[in-house]
Structure prediction request, 824 residues.
Amino acid sequence: MSNIIEIILKRVGTLFATLLIMSFIIFILVEIMPGDVAQMILGQSATEESLAALREVKGLNEPLLTRYWKWISQAVQGDLGESLYMKGVAINSILWRRVGHSLVLAATAFLIFVPLSIFFGVLAGVREKKFSDSLISFFGLATMALPEFVSGILLITVFAVKLDVLPIVSVIPIGETLWQNLNILILPALSITFVMFGYVSRMQRSSVINVMNSDYIRSAILKGMSKRYVIFRHALKNALLPTITIIGMNMGWLFGGLVVVETLFGYPGMGSLLMTAIRTRDLPLIQACVLLITVIYSLSTMITDILYNYLNPLIRFEGEGV
Amino acid sequence: MRRISIMLILFICGFSLLFAGGEKESISGVKTIRIAEQVPGLITPGVWDGQAFSMNSSIYEYLIEIDSNSGELVPLLAKSWGTDDGTNWTFNLREGVKFHDGSAFNSEDVKYTIERTLDPSIGHLKRPDFEIVDYVEIVDEYTITVHLKEARPTFDYQFTDYNMAILSSSYDYDTFGESKPMGTGPYKMVQYIPKESAVLEKNRDYWDTSVAPIERLLIYFIADIDASVSMLEDDRVDVVPFVTPAIRKRLESFENVTVISPYQEQRFIAMRADKAPFDDNNVRLAFKYAMDPHIISRSVAQSELGKDTNYNETPIMNMLVEYKERPLRERDIHKAKELLTKAGYPNGVTVDLYYSSDHPFETDLAQTLKELSAPAGFVLNLKGYTRDIFLSQYWLNVPMSITGWGGRPDPSMLLALAFKTGGSWNETHMSDSYVDNLIEKISNEVDFEKRLSYYHDLQDYFYENGALINFQVPLYIAINNRVINYSHPLSMIPQYKYMDIK
Prediction:
């Protein structure tokens, strides 16, 4: 157990160091991004004088390091600053609502794709080289190859246009909440499922095949245990380890990488907010979004790592004489 | 295994049931228009370049507005106005008008609004046009006189510009302008979720009780135009501005949706006249002879020339009374080649063409220009950048560019800035005393007929010597057929107070 605590402490330390370095890289990358928020706001009618005045008002004329220090010291205290594009509008007031929406979408997608992928992955694994295996593998490959915007449009065409059973866009009607409109989550979540299903089910399949061919499983079967019992009591536990890693590694993407899906469906999450921020060159908002995505990525990787270590008996019991 | 399968099926069914139902937005019997805006913000008037027009134009109000049918000036916060010789302008203001915070509107507010344009710390976009103001005199609480340094017989048009919304002299726009906007307009903002949505409600204290039959404007900020159009198709919004020609075609099959084009915008194809190769008028003429306006219209706007588009070689839009009608130049590749040879380019000439790749119509226009001009010997290298990069890094310093210009109800507003020697937006770098003189006369001449003759002279000159092609493209707005009296004049300010629903 002490080994696990040591691993956790190490990972947390690495996480903070990573975030600090990343915050600087994010800041620099966003700052050197081509484009000019003042020009974006003022458009073609801008004069040199009006551009200079707006840059001054927005604090864009201060030295880079001064701005980084201001930004990171405020961010550590939970203040992500003001939107450049909309004076007087705090980023905290925009961001967290969107983060909440993205979390709900990510959780919905997670609830759909994880059981589906594991179930069909196991099914394909235990029925290796049979028709059902080929069918699941083909479907997995096909959905994996489809970009989100293609699968999204397909889903919209079938469920929203042809069958008319789901809304065509995932916008929350003004005056209502997400909880009153949970059906808007289905199509974007399915679109994400399309992408994830292929990865996870194929990983699960090969993992099951590997485990099923191992000596201890063969021994269990030779002892006369039923195949179902062997699969669920012995094989699945070990076969899930690589799958957990893959799912964990993709949690960051699931949360922060939904730009295409959210934009396509008009879903008011963090991905579409990031897209809008980039379009309007709203630098503090871009920085806040990317920093948050980095935190999620780092955290999910760390948790996956710890979970993997915990679930893997070889590591868990290392140092305890086993 | 069977147990697992049953559990999985139950899970999926339960999940589907959880999310079923409640699909359509409820509109609770209140007359409402729902709008999908692409630009997610609200900018204080003065530094506003077309952001969320529906919101700004409904909250704020102007001294004068433009009648969307006749194009004439109509009194708004100014009941009447007049000038002696174009130098001193007196405005009689409407009494009994209140700002949304309850304060009364009067001369002080107009004076503040005009003087604010000249404040260098704001960087007001109308400053170049208002630098001609000598001083503003408050005659009484509801009368104001603007004294100009020299005559401007069409100065009143400046007050129709979308950046000239009348602001309260006692409100802190620096702090609240972009989060809690406040004007005298027919609608008040009651809810605002930045970058997501806004709710405007009818201003019960609005001075004109005969307008604003709509009770609520619901504004969604949807960055993606396709998602906006999907909302329109699904009856979740009623108005989607800035749709593309391809989307217009797609919407033709929808019975409940109409795409209208309330006015046109301009795309200037500017040739830099002070540097090779366009410093030689023969090269400029060669390029013009290589063009085919009909092909440009079909290729760029998917529309026949004259229907939703127009084309000429002057800075004046075809729809304006100042425009001088003349036949289109016939495409003549042989002549274009001859002119290029005469200019010293017998083997053709290579030019970099810069444009905003994310601004409507410009990429297609650039590609069409490249293909049309190639047979004459022009090799255009297309240099497309996002609009902010194009404007901040390249515009005004490149041999050839495509730029978007909104229509000006009074074309003189643009001439001095864009075509006079030293003008701040002189992208063609034309410097011609004849043109300068004509622009000066246009700006100062009080007599309309005389002014019109100067406009015609200017256009004749541009046709033969100008460094400009003016392709006019439609502003397409998709609306649900329930929306009636859609009103949107050339000043680019949609007038939601006149709109209603069936």
Remarks:
- Chain A has a mean pLDDT of 83.
- Chain A touches chain B through 66 residues (CB under 8 Å).
